Amino acid sequence: MSNNVNPLAGTAHLLDELDKKLMVLLRDGRTLIGYLRCVDQFANLVLHKTIERIHVGREYGDIPRGIFIVRGENVVLLGEIDKDKEDNLPLTEVSVDDILDAQRREQDAKIEQQKLLSKALKERGLNLLADLGHDDMF
After folding, report:
1. Where is it found, in Gene Ontology cellular component terms (predicted)?
2. Distances (CA, A) of 119 to 86, 93, 96, 110, 115
3. How many angstroms separate the CA atoms of 76 and 31, rounded?
4. Hey, which of 57, 66, 72, 75 has its CA 20 to 30 A from 22?
5. Is the pLDDT of residue 8 over 70?
6. What is the dihedral of CA 39, 16, 14, 18, to 10 degrees?
7. Could you give the CA distance from residue 81 to residue 1 in angstroms, rounded to a whole number?
């Protein structure tokens, strides 16, 4: 009786994506875009010419990251970038400083909203569960 289980069955499909431009969503919520140069049996990735793309509302900014090694267990979503659609994004590109400021303001607003919600619940004798954070997000 032969065992036809291919140990690379899951990651073998990634070999078809070598040298293609991919978008990778990580467990911590970051979005990376780069060219897949290497993958191993654990789905660890090596991305080349990588940028970290930050979205806030209808704006985005790209932070150059260069060569980026991603541990396979941190990948939530991976997909090929459609070059035609990438050129016609319905978003506005802004500078890195502008997008980082917008991201900070968005995070501050979320914290303030959490505080108001927590206060309102406390007044009613209820407690808000602690945020599980990005690691438990997916």
Report:
1. Lsm1-7-Pat1 complex; P-body; ribonucleoprotein complex
2. 43, 37, 35, 14, 6
3. 10
4. 57
5. no
6. 40
7. 43
